[in-house]
């Protein structure tokens, strides 16, 4: 997107992010109807997908607006700390203002060595590994029960995803 303008880049990002989510919701309604899912279960499925899309709308809009700016500055975006970076050693220096009598406040470096650790990521990864996939319509024999199981699986996956990196 280096040869396009800022607003063209934002428009393309919105189309691939937010636009794809909205299109997926409308296509899901038609796919559910074609599969023989009852209107009430179809509405529940659409509501869960719409709630997820609305919940991610602010992030999608800000991401679409910021990515071209960050790209122009040569920065690469990273959504979160990947699980492969967990337990990596880190070395750094904090600078604190300290009072050493009788002089005034002096900035003093404090070197440290640490380890990257976010236990929520490990818990989320462990819990998500035990979530079974939802049964298909062929396994249950009923389109409604298969769709309800899929909606339950989606909600559970969203809840576990809020715990940490999965």
Automatic annotation (TrEMBL):
Q: Which domain of life is it from?
A: Bacteria
Q: What name has this protein been given in UniProt?
A: Putative Rhs domain protein
Q: From which source organism is this entry?
A: Bacteroides fragilis str. 3988T(B)14
């Amino acid at each position: 997107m280096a040869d396009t303008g800022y607003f063209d880049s934002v428009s393309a990002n919105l189309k691939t992010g937010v636009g794809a989510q909205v299109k997926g919701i409308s296509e899901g309604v038609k796919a559910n109807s074609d599969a023989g899912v009852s209107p009430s279960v179809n509405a529940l499925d659409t509501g869960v997908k719409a709630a997820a899309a609305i919940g991610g709308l602010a992030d999608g809009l800000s991401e679409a607006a910021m990515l071209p700016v960050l790209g122009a500055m040569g920065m690469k975006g990273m959504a979160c700390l990947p699980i492969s970076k967990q337990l990596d050693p880190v070395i750094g220096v904090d600078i604190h203002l300290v009072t050493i009598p009788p002089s005034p406040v002096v900035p003093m470096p404090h070197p440290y060595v640490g380890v990257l650790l976010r236990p929520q990521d490990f818990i989320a990864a462990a819990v998500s590994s035990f979530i079974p996939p939802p049964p298909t319509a062929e396994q249950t024999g009923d389109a409604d029960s298969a769709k309800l199981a899929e909606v339950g699986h989606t909600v559970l996956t969203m809840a576990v995803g809020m715990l940490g990196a999965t």
